[in-house]
């Protein structure tokens, strides 16, 4: 009888190992660009139909007090993948299209931690975290990049749609590159002496309002100069289709394995140039049409998960990298055709601002069997906590040095914790604000220069708001509540010095 015991143990172990693997959920993060709180149909302020995105709310949970980490894109994306507030890395700010990689390849990033746990990992879409080591040669292997920080596969918009180079990058190489037509990119000296957006303004399919007046690609002038690579240059109208196809292909290819897909849309960032089948569908011009286009992209991913019978074991997250912006460099009628649509909902300001509208954005989560369908949570949730939360869900080992500002927010994500984070840092352009429960500290930073939409005069000592009865942040209580103001300042100073896990 005893001779059978080792054999029984071996057989049980062989049965047990695949059971653990089968329980590892797939992870899909749909990370949109410049979506405000009110830019999704199921949120207050919206006057646009987004049935596919709304499906995530109906089948999962909608958060009303969820925040990206910064009011601009690169810092939020850095935090999402590293679990570290971007202010800890002075290079984590809005980058030129030729900037070097700002994530240290030695870091234990979210994709690396998941990869070590047996996941296949991919980033498809906008990157804007730098590539190479500076002064990139776009005609050879462009590295280090996503693969060096933990992703198995990448298909990228290297920076943003309004910046050169206007090419796709797949597995370190520019797609469709012709070696006889080499690419050069410059963010200083002019290298492209064909007519620029400033010189040939009357030829553009979309006029610029400020800044975007250098090299013309696809009838749209961009930030930065570019020469060569005529066959590689993207067509903006096809961009959503192209990246969605790559994301769907990744899901199909790895349907038998646990996977992590970071699907980073370009919409609704400028230039807003939707495919012809979406033009005019919103009645709000290109910005609204691009929202509908994004909703289509989401639908394609959800349909693929259904088709592959993966939906029941997949956590799908929908979020944005910062709050909304209307005129962001192109004349696309974003203001003129807005109508009753309110991109930031009831909150103040948007992109580039430390007010709530800058970081409080849509956040939806669906995980059948783990998240109750059709629920709403007012808990304070920060994207900074996603690395730890996702790693825990995936039974991945988190090294002690990883994710210094990231907490396990599983109970919040699943709707069990109704309070959420005790405090949360917001940042923009080197300045940091703080939420402490319903209290909000906004320092004097760059707000005075951001135009009438923000229209703020922050005093030298900063402003204090009580969001429990002033969600629009109009009543500065810094003079009436000096002790509370100092409490928030002290807490922020402590967080700056150490990780934010207390």
Order of helices and strands: HEHEEHHEEEEEEEEHEHEHEEEHHEEEEH
Strand order of the largest sheet: 7-6-5-4-12-1-13-14-2-15
CATH architectural group of the largest domain: 3-Layer(aba) Sandwich
Report the top-level CATH class of the largest domain: Alpha Beta
Mean pLDDT, to the nearest integer, reads 93
Oligomer: single chain
Q: Roughly what fraction of the amino acids lie in strands?
A: 15-25%
Q: How many β-strand runs?
A: 20
Distance between the termini: 54 Å
CATH topology of the largest domain: Alkaline Phosphatase, subunit A
> Structural class of the helices, strands and pairings?
alpha/beta
Overall spatial form: globular
Largest sheet: 10 strands, mixed
CATH H-level superfamily title of the largest domain: Alkaline Phosphatase, subunit A
Total number of domains: 2
Task: Report the total helices.
Answer: 10
Low-confidence stretches: 1-21
Q: What is the CA-atom radius of gyration, in angstroms?
A: 23 Å
* Range of helix content: 10-25%
What does this structure look like?
By secondary structure, the protein is of the alpha/beta class. The protein folds into 2 domains: 26-173 and 237-413, Alkaline Phosphatase, subunit A (3-Layer(aba) Sandwich); 423-497, 2-Layer Sandwich (Arylsulfatase, C-terminal domain), CATH 3.30.1120.10. 23% of the residues lie in helices and 16% in strands. It is built from 10 helices and 20 strands. It has helices at residues 4-23, 51-58, 73-82, 110-116, 239-253, 285-307, 356-359, 386-393, 410-413, 482-497, and strands spanning 26-32, 61-63, 66-67, 120-126, 153-157, 169-170, 173-174, 184-186, 216-217, 220-221, 225-227, 259-264, 314-320, 363-366, 375-377, 381-382, 423-428, 431-436, 439-442, 463-466. The strands form 5 sheets. A 10-stranded mixed beta sheet has the order 7-6-5-4-12-1-13-14-2-15, sandwiched between helices. Strand 17 (423-428) and strand 18 (431-436) form a beta hairpin. Helix 5 (239-253) packs parallel to helix 6. It is globular and about 65 Å long.
């Amino acid at each position: 009888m005893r001779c059978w015991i080792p054999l029984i143990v071996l057989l049980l172990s062989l049965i047990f190992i695949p059971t653990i693997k089968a329980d590892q959920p797939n992870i899909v993060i749909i990370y949109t660009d410049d979506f405000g709180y009110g830019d999704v149909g199921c949120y207050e302020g919206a006057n646009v139909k987004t049935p596919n995105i709304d499906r995530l709310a109906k089948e999962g949970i909608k958060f009303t007090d969820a925040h990206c980490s910064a009011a601009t894109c690169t810092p939020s994306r850095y935090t999402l993948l590293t679990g570290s507030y971007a202010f800890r890395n002075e290079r984590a700010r809005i980058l030129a299209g030729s900037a070097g990689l700002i994530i240290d390849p030695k870091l234990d990033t979210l994709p690396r931690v998941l990869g070590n746990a047996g996941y296949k990992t991919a980033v498809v879409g906008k990157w804007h975290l730098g590539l190479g080591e500076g002064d990139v040669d776009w005609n050879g292997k462009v590295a280090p990049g996503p693969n060096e920080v933990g992703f198995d596969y990448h298909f990228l918009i290297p920076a943003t749609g309004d910046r050169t180079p206007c090419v796709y990058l797949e597995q370190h190489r520019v797609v469709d590159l012709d070696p006889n037509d080499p690419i050069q990119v410059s963010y200083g000296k002019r290298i492209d002496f064909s007519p620029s957006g400033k010189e040939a303004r009357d030829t553009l399919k979309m006029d610029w309002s400020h800044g975007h007046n250098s090299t013309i690609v696809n009838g749209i002038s961009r930030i930065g100069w570019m020469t060569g690579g005529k066959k590689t240059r993207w067509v903006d109208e096809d961009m959503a289709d192209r990246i969605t196809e790559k994301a769907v292909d990744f899901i199909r290819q790895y349907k038998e394995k646990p996977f992590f897909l970071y699907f980073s849309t370009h919409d609704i960032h400028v230039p807003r140039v939707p495919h012809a089948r979406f033009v005019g569908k919103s009645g709000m011009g290109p910005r609204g049409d691009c929202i509908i286009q994004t909703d289509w992209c989401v639908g394609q991913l959800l349909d693929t998960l259904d088709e592959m019978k993966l939906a029941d074991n997949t956590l799908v997250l929908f979020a944005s990298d910062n709050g909304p912006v209307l005129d962001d460099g192109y004349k696309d009628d974003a203001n003129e055709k807005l109508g009753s649509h309110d991109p930031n909902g009831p909150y103040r300001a948007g992109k580039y601002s430390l007010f709530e509208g800058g970081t409080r954005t849509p956040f939806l989560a669906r995980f059948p069997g783990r998240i109750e369908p059709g629920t709403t949570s007012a808990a304070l949730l920060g994207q900074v906590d996603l690395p730890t939360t996702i790693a825990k869900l995936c039974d991945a080992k988190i090294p002690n040095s990883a994710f210094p500002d990231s907490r396990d927010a599983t109970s919040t994500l699943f709707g069990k914790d109704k309070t959420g984070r005790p405090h949360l840092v917001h940042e923009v352009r080197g300045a940091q604000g703080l939420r402490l429960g319903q209290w909000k500290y906004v320092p004097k930073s760059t707000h005075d220069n951001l135009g009438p939409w923000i229209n703020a005069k922050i005093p030298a000592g900063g402003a204090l708001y009580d969001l429990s009865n002033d969600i629009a942040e109009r009543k500065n209580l810094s003079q009436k509540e000096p002790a509370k103001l100092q409490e928030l300042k002290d807490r922020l100073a402590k967080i700056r010095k150490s990780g934010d896990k207390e």
